[in-house]
Structures are given as C-alpha cells and as structure tokens.
C-alpha cells in the first residue's frame, strides 16, 4: 500500500492568509480615512489609525512603515475608486457624446461626496514625497477618455487635441475641488461653472459636441 503525502499546510493556508491581510489593510485604510476627515491630513499618525481601527500599533507597522506610507496607500485607493467610477461611465452606452461627458462629471462629483477623505487628500497630489512627486490626477484619466473616444465614437485625437482635452479636464478638476473645499455637498455655483467651462473647451476639441447642442 502506497502512502500518499499529507497535503501541504502552506498551500492550504496561503489564500486565506492573503485574504485576511487584504481585509486588515482595508480596515486600516478605512480608519485612516476617518482620521483624515476628523482631524486633517497633518494630524494623522499611526497611533491614531491603530486606535480608530481597534488594532495594535504593531499591526499598523506590519503593513505601513510610517504615516506617509498610510497616506500614500489611502491616496492610491482614492484614485482607484475615482477611476473605477469613471470607467463605469465610459463602459455605459450613452446615446450622445454630450451625455457621456455629463456622466463623467457626475461620477467625479459623486466620488468627492461618497469617498471619505477624498475632499482633503484626493489622490495624494499635495503630499510632500520629496523627489518622487505623484503624477497629476488629470493625466491618469486623459488616456481612458481618449481610448473611449476612439473605440465608442471613432474619434482620433492628435497631440494638440489631446493637450486641449487635458487642460479641459484639469479646469473641471480644479473647480470641482474648490467646490468641495468648504461644502461637503459641493458648492453648486462652482460645479455649474466647471461643467460649463468643460463643455466649452471640449467643444473646441470635438466639434461633434457643438453639433449636438
């Protein structure tokens, strides 16, 4: 009779351990977001994160070596959540290009409203990381929008048009950010202005928008 080797405990435990670690990291980032909302970025410490999460300081240090690492991870999660929100818009079958742009704007606004810490931290552009500064949020989304224009609407942008689109999105981003600076729901005056300027600037890049008006 041939004895079969016992299953490896490492193989069996590997996936659950990864899953538990991911859940713990999410819980720590949720706690960090709450601290940022309540106390501000400058007052976030690993001790406050541990206290808010109901975890030991050692648990925090297991995943994040310092407070900057916590903020960077939280900022990356914020950026991913906005990007997913915009990707969902771009995957939807909107009947017109104008409605697509309006839906993208609404996705940005809802991210500011619904994602804790986004108003103050956003995607970490303001973090002082020394030589390795974070890339602007706008450039992250331009590629996604350009690809959508090509695949959904058959519109190819040259370099000048792409740059103009980046400026248009940047103007919108700046005004949406300002709208939420002192208003948790977003000051409607600046949100409306952001949409208006976005449409005007994009219409210069995409004559199709003017045709829809």
Could you characterize what this model shows?
With 213 residues, the chain is mainly alpha-helical. The protein contains 10 helices and no strands. It has helices at residues 9-39, 46-53, 57-63, 67-91, 97-114, 118-121, 137-153, 159-179, 188-205, 207-212. The longest helix is centred in the N-terminal third of the chain and has 31 residues, at 9-39. It starts with 8 loop residues before the first helix and ends with a helix.
Fold topology:
Layout: H1 9-39, H2 46-53, H3 57-63, H4 67-91, H5 97-114, H6 118-121, H7 137-153, H8 159-179, H9 188-205, H10 207-212
Q: Which structural class do you get from the secondary structure elements?
A: mainly alpha
Question: What's the helical proportion of residues?
Answer: over 70%
How far from one another are the termini?
Answer: 81 Å
User: Whole-number radius of gyration?
Assistant: 22 Å
- Proportion of residues in β-strands: under 5%
Low-pLDDT residue intervals, each spanning 5 or more residues: 1-15
Number of helices: 10
Q: What sort of overall outline do the alpha carbons produce when their principal axes are compared?
A: elongated
Mean pLDDT across residues? 84
Along the chain, the helix and strand elements come as: HHHHHHHHHH
């Amino acid at each position: 009779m041939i004895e079969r080797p016992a299953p490896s405990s490492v193989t069996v435990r590997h996936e659950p351990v990864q899953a538990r670690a991911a859940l713990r990291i999410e819980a720590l980032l949720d706690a960090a977001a709450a601290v940022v909302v309540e106390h501000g970025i400058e007052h976030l410490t690993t001790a406050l994160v541990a206290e808010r999460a109901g975890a030991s300081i050692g648990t925090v240090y297991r995943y994040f070596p310092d407070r900057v690492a916590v903020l960077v991870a939280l900022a990356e999660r914020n950026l991913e959540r906005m990007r997913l929100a915009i990707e969902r818009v771009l995957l939807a079958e909107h009947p017109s290009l104008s409605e697509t742009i309006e839906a993208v704007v609404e996705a940005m606004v809802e991210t500011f409203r619904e994602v804790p810490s986004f108003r103050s931290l956003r995607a970490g552009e303001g973090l002082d990381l020394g030589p390795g500064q974070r890339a602007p949020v706008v450039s992250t989304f331009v590629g996604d929008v350009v690809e959508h224009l090509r695949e959904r609407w058959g519109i190819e942008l040259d370099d000048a048009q792409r740059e103009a689109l980046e400026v248009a999105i940047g103007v919108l981003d700046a005004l949406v950010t300002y709208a939420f600076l002192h208003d948790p729901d977003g000051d409607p005056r600046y949100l409306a202005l952001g949409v208006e300027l976005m449409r005007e600037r994009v219409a210069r890049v995409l004559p199709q928008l003017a045709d829809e008006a």
